[in-house]
Amino acid sequence: MTSDNGMSSISRNRANSAGRVLSAGFHRDTVSDYVRALAVAQQWRSQHVNPTEQCFAKVLDCSKSISRSVATFRLKRMISIVRKIQRPSTHFKLGELDDIGGCRLIVESNEQVRHAASWLASNLPLKNGSADKDYIARPQDSGYRSRHLLCSIASDSASYHVEVQIRTRLQHCWSTAVEAAGEIYGTEYKSPVVRADADGDDERRLRFFKIVSSLFALEEHAPQVPGFVGDYTTLVRQLRDLDCTRSVLGDLNAAVDSVFIADTLEASSELFLLKLSRESQYLDVEPFRADELEEALRRYDAVERHIELPGDGTSTSDETGYDNAVLVYARDAEQLAIAYPNYSTNVRFFLDKVNGYLEP
């Protein structure tokens, strides 16, 4: 079995073996083994490109039928893959990860989430026939709310897992704000291990996001976060009484205005390749027409190949300094801003909502 680039494809078992080496971490006496395992993991990730593209085509079809929706395509960054399988007290296997390939659909309401999930489940093969995780009906303890479909897509005579996330704008801006806070404070708040061990300031910040998530759920007439069920007045009082609320809002506010965005929106464009350099805080937007999907996917792959790999300290190219990329389907500038792989638009929306709760 060979992959699209002519190389022998990595099997799921071989990927799992490489993952065990990577999970042990980078050590001087095992540097050659680690580098070889990293190369295997990179190829395993690359093999998810075609099945994720197949999945994205269906997500695009769904998005076109839902007004104001935004669809995105991305592969999980290598550094994020390695960090996930290196989490202590977890048993993630590289070959079994469900989210190396990912598509996302952002809509306006939970009713649209249900409609999209039903349509996609009928038009995509789900893992084990029924892999549907509804974190809106049953929010996670962290406050995370979204709907996940885990797909099993055939490619190269094998099957690959691709995750499709469907969420509302409120759910999306909450998740983005949590990621932004993680970068600001140097703590991976999305990690279950980090949350389980959190104390002091980290524990209070996590409580802040749980309260806000329950307020958002209340606004959407949806189930609230376990342990944070209450009416509007009670939850707002808890938010005001939390001693970190103002500092979290202030730190998020300081972060949202730091990214320069290239203004390249064209009237005929509906697909956009967003490329972010965090070091220079520059976001480049490369537009494509809707009928240029194949070229847009090719360019996404080319940019991804330049992103630095963890553990080797070198980049495959010096022509870009990008360290994040996402391909987006959007029909106007406002929709495109929702999908930016930085925090400006979504965190600003989050801040406006939370500050609105806190007004007398």
TrEMBL record:
- Note the SUPFAM superfamilies from the entry: Nucleotidyltransferase
Q: Where is the RelA/SpoT domain?
A: 73-189
InterPro entries listed in its UniProt record: GTP_Pyrophosphokinase, NT_sf, RelA_SpoT
Example GO BP: guanosine tetraphosphate metabolic process
What domain of life is recorded for the organism? Bacteria
Protein name (record)? RelA/SpoT domain-containing protein
Gene source species: Bifidobacterium myosotis
